[in-house]
């Protein structure tokens, strides 16, 4: 099953600016809605003060709402990218030149989200973690801007968001104080490792292999983006597995 393909200029129409801006505003508003829902009007009060989310520090409230919005984006973009790669086979077969509108729309939505999250991190993040996160966002955003071809490569990159669904869920469970030995946490941690291997590491290896095999068609910058994401994903994999005790560490 395939889609109808036309040659699209990645940024050839002024409307893309409004679509990205609309996505940015949507996620900004969503962030406030999520925070209001979780913490407004005395919600989530619990007899156990350690679980009462209305009395947690402001930065932790921001972390929870930020992770929740990131989870929503991961669900949408991961499934969207999977749909594109499954049902638009020519995009899968030609990662460089093929275009389809449904894939471009996903790029615009995710671009707006990344701008929102970049802004949110700069304003609110108060730890050294911001360096790693901003590096990831800068690499991805720059890749979106500069690689005006390679839409298929971008779709594979967004396919990694399927793993992010469980990564953000795991982070939220940590923030909510769910015990690591509980069945629910162990299940999410297991699914996180499985999807990390399938949708992040395997995809990274495939893109690196593809980049090396297609160097004659590739800009050096594009290769750098793929290798940067590969390194970032490798570090993420190590940290997640170490945190879950797979290397004998906590």
Automatic annotation (TrEMBL):
Membrane topology (UniProt): Multi-pass membrane protein
GO biological process, one term: regulation of membrane lipid distribution
Transmembrane segments: 16-38, 68-86, 153-173, 185-211, 217-240
GO CC field: plasma membrane
Main localization, broad class: membrane
Pfam families reported for this sequence: TRAM_LAG1_CLN8
InterPro entries per record: TLC-dom, TLCD
SMART domains with a match to the protein in the record: TLC
Cellular localisation: Membrane
Keywords: Membrane, Transmembrane, Transmembrane helix
Entry-linked PROSITE patterns: TLC
Domain TLC, residue spans: 59-241
Protein name, entry field: TLC domain-containing protein
Native source species: Angiostrongylus costaricensis (Nematode worm)
